Structures are given as structure tokens and as C-alpha cells.
Amino acid sequence: MSEPVLELEVLRYRPETDQDPVFQTYTVPYNSDWVVLDALTHIKDNIDRTLSFRWSCHMAVCGSCGVMINGEPKLSCHTFLRDYYPGKVRVEPLTNFPIERDLVTVADDFMEKLASVKPYVITEEDRPVSAGEHLQSPADLNSFKQYTMCINCMLCYAACPQMGLTPDFVGPAALALAHRYNLDTRDAGREERQEIAASNEGVWDCTFVGACSQVCPKAVDPAAAIQQTKIASTVDWYKALLPWGK
Amino acid sequence: MAKSNKPIVWSLFAGGGMIAAFVLPAMIFITGLAVPMGLLLENALAYDRMLALVGNPIGKLVLFGVIFLSLWHAAHRLRMTLHDLGIRSGRVAMLACYGVAGLASIAAAVVLLSI
Amino acid sequence: MGEVMDRRPYVREMPKSWWLGQRRYTFYMVRELTCLFIGAYALVILVGLFRLSQGPVAYGAFVDALQGPFAIAFHLLALVFALFHTVTWFGLTPKAMPLRLGEKTVPGTAIIVAHYAVWFVVSATLLLVARA
Questions:
Q1: Residue B107 sits in which domain range?
Q2: C32 at the B interface (CB within 8 A)?
């Protein structure tokens, strides 16, 4: 009896030889415990060492191994072959990102957008270490905790059609993290973040498709964060019209 | 970065979406199906009743609110959708969508005030 | 060390038919296109009011025209799309307007149910007024 196998179609792009990306089919042993990343690693170790892909932790924490699996953005370390077997598995680099090589994308634009929203606690005054812990109640933590789970895996950017249609859009993860710090009781940086979040390229490019939240492997809800930011920014806008506002 | 004026466009879109969600199904059923098909509500759209409704300042205001906000909601959503469908000439789409909504709203105000 | 290779990042174009490829995008597009019926119906009311301002004869013609098969078909479709708008709109309210009472977060379904309750009262009132 022959061992069960599974066909993996992988989008290849070797900038030095390929004009356009092409699919290459690999046949790998099927193992019900394997995730797609295991299959990719098997290919690199045993079949074709030129295949390039990113990964690091193999446990859905580092956010490096996001790819399109049968058209859906997923972490390859978190997607089991058994959910597709005996069907084929088609692996492509994340949509809406330029391809550097094979499954590796160029993430520079995302990194710039992420940094632009200042995703860290900004305090009114510098707090010396001697000031001790910056306390926060569990209830206050709960108001934003889900957003802290973001691992910057960029699946939401691949799922968002507005990212493809309007490349300047700041995008789901960055806006969700801006919201996360705005909600943090220790933070005083909202006004600085609003410069980006409430700009034309900020929340207003979102049309609430909601795909970002559906594909998030960590159950973060960027779509909710963006709508809440729209409402809060609208309140700011009307408040500024009042004689005593601003 | 320039201060965005999108909040005014978006808040009217959101307000219109909310109003439309609450009242339009019942209104469409009454004026477009129940009355024309003679389902229990034959007199709902009678001339005198409508005249009385529109003659009332509150009736005018409510009708104007429903028409204006529904039109604005539709215009904004259509503009975004045209962009989604790959119609990139933003200015033309913008003028067509908001222009029709704006002119029709002015017409609604004029008609309501004339009654 | 190996030789330095030239970078040539490959940008994939988004196909215009992107919204046909996946169910969630098609669903989104149908949701967005409800606006056509919302807008068209608002224009129907506007025409009705205009005919009303012209007097009983003109208004009578408008009410008669509503009985035509095309008008009935339009309103039937408009009702379906308007209901789809209502369902999808209410479904998204907990994300846009989460509610916290003291230390507790109100469950999203409670927010949606509250919207339906108001919708029911508004719709019933409109129907009762129309019947009166």
C-alpha cells in the first residue's frame, strides 16, 4: 500500500528568472498532524531548497508565516492539511502586498503605517521608573484587551479589498492598534494618533467590509475599532463647530 | 495631514442608514404594495389624508428628513461602491451621486413648503 | 557570501471582478447595492409629493400608477433590499456602538435585539396609522 500524499500548488516568483509568478506543484507525504508550514518545510528540506517563505515560531504568535491558502489569508503554522485532504492546497503570498520572492512579501509599507499611528503608550509627562507601576483596573484593561492580541501578521491587510483599491489606506491592524492605545487609561496620545487615524487615508477609506475581523487568527476586531474611531472622530468634528469646543 | 471633512459626509450617511433601516421597509410595504394591491389599507394614501399629513409642520419635517437622509445615504454608498467596482474618476462619480441627492433634496424642500 | 541579487518586487493587480470571487465579498457588494433601492424609493416619495402639490387629479394619477405591474415589481424588490439593508445594518451595530454598563460589556446580541424591538414598534405604528 502506498503512503498517502497531498498536492501542494505554490506560487513561485524568482525575480532573477521569472517575468511573472508561476504555480509549481509539489507532492508531499500526507500527515494528518501536519500544518501547511510543515509541508512547506518538507519541500525545502527534501524536494526544492530554492523555495522561499517566512516563518519563525510555528505556534501562531510571531505573525511571520501568513500566506493565502486556497484564496484565504491564513497563518501557515495554524492551518492543518487535514482540513483540505484529499483536495489540493494552493499557497500564494499575501494579497495586496508586492512579492519579494516566492511566498515572501514586501512589508515595508505596512511597517511605516504601523509606526505612523504611534502604537505605544504616550504619557502627558515622562514617568521615571521610580514613579512605580502605572496602575490600571481589570475593567479598564478589558475595554481594549482584545486589540492587544494583534501579532502584526498582516492577514487583515490581505483580506481588506480597500487595501487593494486604495493603497494609501492606513489599514485595519494599524487603526485597531491606534484605537487600542486611545482606549488605554494610561495613555494621553489620542490627539497625535488622530492626525493619521482621522485623516482621509485613515478610517474614512474603510467601507466596513468586515473581512479583516473574519480572518484575524487572534480574534481581534479591527472593523469594530475603525467604526468606533469614525464615530469618535465625527463627534470631535461637530464639537469643534461649537463656540466652546476646541 | 489636512483635517478631513469626511465626518459630515459620513455622519449623514450613517444617520440615513439608520433611518432607512427603521422606517423604509414599512413605508415601502404600505405605499408600494399594500395600498396598490388593496391589502386592507385602501385609504392610507387618500388625497385628503396626505394633504393633512404634509400640511402639518412636523409631517413636513419628518418627510423631508426621511427623503434627504435616505438620498444622502444612497448617494454616499453608491459613490463608494462605484469606486469598489473600479470607476476611478472620483470627481465625476462624486458630482453625480451627491449632486443628484442634493438637487432632489432641494426639490423635496421646495415641494413640501409649497403644500 | 553569495552575490547581491537585484530586487524586483512584483505587484499583482487587483482584478475588477474581485467581489465575485469570494462569498464574503459578494455578500458585501449586495449589501452595498441596497442603496440603489433606498435612493430610488426616496425619489418615488418625492414624485408622489410633487404630484400631491399639483392637486387631486395629478395625485390620483400617481396613486393609480403605483398599481402598474412594473411599480409593484419594483416595490417588491425594493422591500426585499430594504429588509436586507435593515438586517445587515442592525447586525453591525454592536461593533460600531459597543455598550458598557459599569464594568460589564453589554452582549452584542442585546444591542441587535434592542434595534429590532424599536424597528418593530416603528413599523407597527406606521401600519396602524396607515390603517386608521
A1: 7-114
A2: yes
CATH fold label, A5-105: Ubiquitin-like (UB roll) (3.10.20)
Contact (CB<8Å) A204/B2 = no
Count of H helices and E strands in chain B? 4, 0
Q: Is A29 helix (H, G, I), strand (E, B) or coil?
A: strand
Pair C116, C90: CB distance under 8 Å: yes
- The answer to whether residue C43 neighbours chain B at the CB level (below 8 Å) is yes
So where are chain C's domains?
18-131
Indicate the SS3 state at residue A173.
helix
How many structural domains compose chain B?
1
Q: What is the predicted ipTM? A: 0.94
Vertex C49 angle, CA C46 and C50, to 5° = 85
Q: Which three cell numbers stand for residue A226?
A: 475603525
Cell numbers for A41: 518545510
Nearest residue of A to residue C100, measured between CA atoms = A143
- Contact list in A for residue B4 (CB cut-off 8 A) is 198-200, 202, 204, 233
| Contact residues on chain B for C42, CB-CB shorter than 8 A | 66-67, 70-71, 74, 104
Question: Quick check: is B2 in a domain?
Answer: no
Is B27 within the bounds of a domain?
yes
B33-80 pLDDT per residue, tens: 999 999 877 789 999 999 999 999 999 999 999 999 999 999 999 999
**Number of Cβ pairs < 8 A linking chain A and chain B:** 38
Residue C47 CB partners (closer than 8 Å, separation 6+): C62
Residues C73 and C40: beta-carbon distance below 8 Å: no
Fold of C18-131: 3 helical TM bundles of succinate and fumarate reductases (1.20.1300)
Residue B1 lies in a domain: no
Chain C contact present for B21, CB below 8 A: yes
Secondary structure of residue C5 in the 3-state scheme? coil
> Is A49's Cβ below 8 Å from some Cβ in C?
no
User: Is B44 a domain residue?
Assistant: yes
Q: What is the pLDDT along chain A (246 residues), one digit of tens a residue?
A: 688 999 999 999 999 999 999 999 999 999 999 999 999 999 999 999 999 999 999 999 999 999 999 999 999 999 999 999 999 999 999 999 999 999 999 999 999 999 999 999 999 888 899 989 999 999 899 999 999 999 999 999 999 999 999 999 999 999 999 999 999 999 999 999 999 999 999 999 999 999 999 999 999 999 999 999 999 999 999 999 888 865
Q: Do B32 and C43 touch (CB under 8 A)?
A: no
Fold of A108-241: Fumarate Reductase Iron-sulfur Protein; Chain B, domain 2 (1.10.1060)
